[in-house]
Amino acid sequence: MTNINFRDLRYLVAVADHQHFGRAAAACFVSQPTLSTQVKKLEEYLGVQLVERTSKKVIVTPVGRMVSERARQVLNEVDDIVDVARAAGDPMAGDLRLGIIPTLGPYLIPHLFPVLQAEYPRLKVLLHEERTSGLIDRLREGSLDAAIMGAPIPDDALIPQPLFQEPFQVALPAGHSLAAQATIKRADLDAVPMLLLEEGHCMRDQALDFCSTVGAQQQQDFRATSLETLRQMVATGAGVTLLPTLAVDPASAARENIAVRPFAGAPPVRELAVYRRRGCAREPVISALAELIQNLPPVRHLSDS
What we know:
single chain
């Protein structure tokens, strides 16, 4: 038997994540001297230097990075063991660490959480909103149980459960020539400059793909940080953009002098799915969450329209 304990592995992973003893200690809810001492003991037991200590910063050595990544995998498995045991008593109780992309969160969560609380009052959802790349990293490292993201995600270790397809609509300044039309044909957007999100948003990639197929052009001098920023830029007359249907509020759009028009024929859509790690112990609650989302009235309306 080895003399490595899980606590010391958590300390090492925290140091690797934070690159700072003080912040790592705070994350582990221990004093800095305690954490530093235990990491030093782990180094002595393994016979290698895991961390370089300087007056200004902490540097994890190459072998320290390899050990910390394996430690992360071990700790994920340990946490899954605990989750399995707890779920045996009541799978729909306890904490669920859920991630969601920011282009969906504000428009889905207000519909989801009241239903979730009513159906599963013993389940506590800890929500984390972040772009796709960050959610993938958190899923891999085990700090999230599941994440709602655009599909597909090219990672065989992450298992998707499809949720729904969300059509895009065209948002235009109220005075735009296309605003007089009830629907927008794809050909109408040929050579039209489009306002897009900044890099890192999966919806930006989807919008770029659409632009390339219809001949629309990316407006080069602007990148939005959020859908709300895009909406405000359209309201000022700065340009045209695509909005996912759940983010469209016709009453608000009218007040803001924005015209939102559906596409004529089959609209471009984005695929949404909830992802989990392969072998995740919270699979039953994640499946129940997916079913709840699929049956939310605004989501059902997307498939009916």
